[in-house]
């Protein structure tokens, strides 16, 4: 289809979450969009390691953040408003073109390439502002939210654009002011609307549920009842006509609020972290001219071990067997969860790019008689000394990554009993802070590149072992003697006593609001499990989403 009618894929209304029936996952277009960032991130990492200084670090931050902002804008648009039509595909192509322009002109954003870099970024963001104004016309019940989002784009974009014309000494100040305002808007507006809402039923712990359109409709008769469009999707009527005051109703509270699809958003953040971590994988690959294993190969293997341990820690979340995600826990924890990924992603890029330099560094004994990697032999000259700035960049980036993962682990709420696991959550998370602090102190030891990688690999493996062992159920055997032994007991003990229900619907060409119902993400209590599931199984559209970490 060339163009579909604008729509909201999930939203809050008077404490009830209306959402699509089908589960969301990253589309092929989103994965191709991510592929553009693979090349862009590689370029940013190369520029960072080429100039390891305060000015180089500042340039890295001020070039990475706009690109991360564009990635976030696109993901949020697809998460909430995606129509999956031809217009949306060309929109993604347009954003990709502008992103390529930014990536190729990120080398000197304070001087010669500032105009084209900033202009491309502003144009990419203003495109979404223009799109949201159009949506505000077609979806009037969400007009206030769309206008608020539009102002959140226009105001900082104006600051970015003004940086082109200010004196060179003030460019950095204008860029930092724009970044701070965007981060403030990203966190303040959702939190403001959440705290000012008059419906406490919006809290995640709501158990009672009532249909909005037909309060007397039962679950058994829901499928047989004639569907009626929800009034949130109506676009006709004088009560929905534009008023000039609507353009300035930024913080007005309405009963309709758009909602994030948490599964899709958390998946997208995880995939972007994998892209940033992928910089380290590409860095350990080099062309060897030695017919025997050498120190370069040993350092590459150690670098791979460290990168895999980071991946392991990140996707183990807070090392709990059961947890409530930060995005579900509260608006405040959800905002911090998203913001924590900004320094995390930057630190992963810095780690990967510096790792590539360390792997090919010939600072070990008898290096003169060892064939150099192809990258060094054909042009890139390398000192035989392990420079302090490179060691500091490598270790500090690893430390920041560990601190961010520790903070993310704190934001998630553990649902394990106090005496459920072998080690408490506080002990496991504290270890991340301790290991991160040790990473920062390692450059003071003035180790060689090989010894530094060995030390960090041992520390990271120790942390992975402790967290993996600590999250095991107390008194559980380390090795099962039979297939499936102890699994059923763990799953039964991991059940929770709350259940959340919400409205879902299926998008279709005939009726955009054909309702279907399902249960939410909370686990049921063991004593109520059979009774509730048997009751819901009478409706074939019901399911129970369980988050269990084995």
From TrEMBL:
It holds the Pfam family LtrA. Keywords: Membrane, Transmembrane, Transmembrane helix. The chain crosses the membrane at residues 90-107, 113-134, 146-166, 172-192, 269-289, 295-315, 335-355, 386-408, 429-446. The keyword Nuclease does not apply. InterPro entries: Low_temperature_requirement_A. This is Bacterial low temperature requirement A protein. It comes from Gigaspora rosea.
């Amino acid at each position: 289809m060339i163009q579909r009618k604008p729509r909201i894929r999930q939203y809050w209304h008077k404490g009830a979450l209306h959402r699509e029936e089908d589960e969301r996952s990253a589309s092929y277009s989103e994965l191709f969009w991510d592929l553009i960032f693979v090349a862009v991130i590689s370029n940013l990492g190369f520029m960072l390691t080429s100039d390891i200084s305060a000015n180089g670090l500042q340039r890295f931050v001020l070039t990475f953040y706009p690109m991360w902002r564009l990635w976030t804008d696109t993901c949020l648009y697809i998460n909430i408003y995606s129509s999956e039509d031809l217009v949306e595909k060309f929109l993604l192509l347009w954003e990709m073109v502008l992103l390529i322009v930014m990536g190729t002109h990120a080398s000197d954003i304070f001087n010669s390439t500032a105009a084209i870099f900033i202009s491309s970024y502003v144009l990419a963001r203003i495109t979404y502002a223009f799109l949201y104004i159009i949506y505000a016309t077609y979806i009037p019940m969400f007009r206030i939210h769309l206008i608020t989002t539009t102002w959140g784009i226009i105001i900082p974009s104006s600051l970015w654009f003004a940086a082109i014309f200010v004196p060179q000494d003030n460019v950095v100040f204008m860029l930092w002011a724009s970044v701070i305002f965007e981060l403030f808007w990203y966190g303040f507006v959702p939190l403001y609307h959440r705290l000012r809402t008059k419906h406490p039923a919006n809290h995640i712990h709501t158990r009672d549920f009532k249909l909005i359109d037909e309060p007397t409709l039962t679950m058994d008769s829901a499928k047989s009842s004639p569907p009626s469009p929800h009034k949130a999707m109506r676009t006709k009527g004088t009560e929905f006509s534009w008023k000039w005051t609507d353009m300035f109703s930024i913080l007005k509270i309405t009963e309709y609020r758009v909602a994030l699809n948490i599964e899709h958003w958390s998946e997208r953040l995880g995939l972007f972290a994998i892209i940033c971590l992928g910089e380290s994988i590409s860095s350990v690959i080099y062309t060897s001219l030695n017919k025997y294993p050498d120190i370069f190969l040993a350092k590459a293997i150690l670098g791979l071990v460290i990168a895999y341990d980071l991946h392991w820690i990140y996707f183990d979340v807070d090392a709990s067997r059961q947890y409530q995600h930060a995005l579900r826990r509260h608006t405040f924890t959800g905002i911090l969860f998203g913001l924590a990924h900004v320094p995390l992603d930057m630190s992963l890029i810095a780690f990967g790019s510096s790792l590539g330099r360390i792997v090919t560094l010939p600072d070990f004994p008898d290096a003169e008689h060892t064939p150099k990697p192809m990258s060094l032999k054909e042009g890139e000259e390398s000192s035989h000394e392990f420079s302090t700035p490179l060691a500091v960049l490598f270790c500090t980036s690893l430390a920041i990554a560990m601190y961010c993962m520790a903070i993310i682990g704190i934001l998630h709420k553990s649902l394990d009993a106090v005496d459920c696991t072998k080690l408490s959550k506080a002990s496991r998370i504290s270890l991340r802070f301790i290991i991160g602090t040790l990473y920062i102190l390692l450059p003071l030891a003035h180790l060689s590149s090989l010894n530094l990688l060995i030390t960090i690999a041992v520390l990271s493996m120790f942390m992975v072992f402790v967290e993996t062992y600590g999250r095991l159920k107390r008194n559980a055997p380390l090795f099962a003697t039979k297939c499936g032994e102890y699994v059923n007991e763990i799953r039964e003990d991991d059940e929770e006593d709350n259940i959340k229900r919400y409205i879902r619907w299926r998008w279709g060409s005939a009726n955009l609001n054909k309702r279907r119902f399902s249960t939410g993400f909370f686990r049921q209590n063991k004593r109520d499990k059979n009774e509730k599931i048997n009751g819901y199984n009478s409706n074939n559209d019901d399911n129970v989403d369980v988050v269990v970490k084995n």
